[in-house]
Amino acid sequence: MDIHITRLEERYGQNYLLLQSMSLVRGFYLGTLMPFYMLMIRLVVHHKVVSLVYIFNGLLMHMA
Which residue windows are transmembrane per the record (predicted)? Predict the structure, then answer.
């Protein structure tokens, strides 16, 4: 495993470190923000489907 990692570092260098940090950030996001985000989505979908669609359509009309 160590040999594989060193080979990756030789080949990619900074990119590999960047990937490592990205996966760390993604893990943090999935661990903390994602459940909260999903909960919010579930609440909105449960209570305000029609109003959400209305707002989305309004945004589309505004942008177009």
Answer: 27-45
15 and 22 in contact (C-beta within 8 Å)? no
CA angle 27-56-61, nearest 5°?
Answer: 135
The 8-class DSSP code of residue 13 comes to T
Tokens read off for 16: 């590999």
Q: How far apart are CA 53 and CA 1, in angstroms?
A: 50
How many degrees, rounded to 5, is the angle at CA 58 between CA 54 and CA 61? 140
| Degrees, nearest 5: CA angle 55-47-52 | 10
Interatomic CA distance for residues 9 and 1, integer angstroms: 12
pLDDT tens digit sequence for 9-18: 666 666 777 7
